[in-house]
Design a protein that fits this description.
235 residues; mainly alpha; 3-stranded antiparallel β-sheet; 7 helices
């Protein structure tokens, strides 16, 4: 029997490409579909957790999602694997924006299934994020789609994984404590979370020092308070 933590080949549930399909460029997920990005930036899911998410792990009525598996490419093969660490297997509340985006994604997937007809291959995987034919999305294609989106928006290119870092930074800035951030992001230990805190604190310090520098350059700040104004003080 396969161990619960042993990766399973996605190809066990999805047919291998026909000979005529081989060598074609893999289908890229739609850059315009926002739900994968919403899950990354709002609740900090990893790329593999997003792609491995199943509908049975999503409770839109309750507003929660449970992370039970990931999709990764290992040794040239697309695999279904257990979450990265024991703490990565977790239940997370869904913000209203994520619920809305997932409902839109479900409607889009139903439309894809109807359009694909007999070509639909997603019957056995229950995945939330699939190609238009129901097959699992290649992780690198999610990266490519996000890069295209950055270019289209005219903003600096960042990695899809950086959305997760943004989530951690925003949680910290809005007052979430380290333990809650650890639970949301599925960090293996509080130390990993505190490393993020250190990075964010340094960023905040630099921003504060920049403001101090601006005030000093203005030359309109208050007088030094080392002694009474206009008086000499012996030292």
């Amino acid at each position: 029997m396969r161990s619960a933590h042993a990766p399973a080949s996605v190809t066990a549930a999805v047919r291998r490409p026909a000979r005529s399909d081989r060598g074609r460029r893999p289908t890229c997920p739609r850059p315009g579909a926002p739900s994968s990005r919403e899950l990354a930036v709002r609740i900090g899911l990893r790329r593999g957790e997003v792609l491995g998410l199943r509908w049975k792990d999503v409770d839109l009525a309750d507003g929660s999602v449970t992370i039970r598996q990931t999709i990764q490419r290992v040794g040239g093969e697309l695999l279904i694997a257990a979450p990265k660490t024991q703490r990565s297997a977790r239940r997370i509340a869904l913000p209203a924006e994520c619920v809305t985006a997932l409902r839109a994604r479900r409607a889009q997937q139903r439309g894809d299934k109807l359009a694909a007809g007999e070509r639909w291959k997603g019957g056995g995987n229950d995945l939330v994020f699939t190609t238009k034919h129901g097959t699992p999305i290649e992780p690198r294609n999610l990266n490519r789609a996000f890069t295209l989106l950055c270019d289209k928006a005219g903003v600096r290119r960042v990695r899809f994984h950086d959305l997760r870092h943004t989530c951690a930074s925003l949680l910290h800035e809005k007052g979430a404590d380290a333990r809650m951030i650890m639970e949301v992001l599925g960090h293996s230990s509080i130390r990993v979370t505190m490393d993020i805190y250190t990075f964010v604190r340094l960023d905040s310090q630099r921003s504060a020092f920049d403001r101090v520098g601006d005030a000093l350059r203005d030359g309109n700040g208050p007088d030094d308070d080392d002694g009474p104004s206009g008086a000499l003080v012996a030292v």
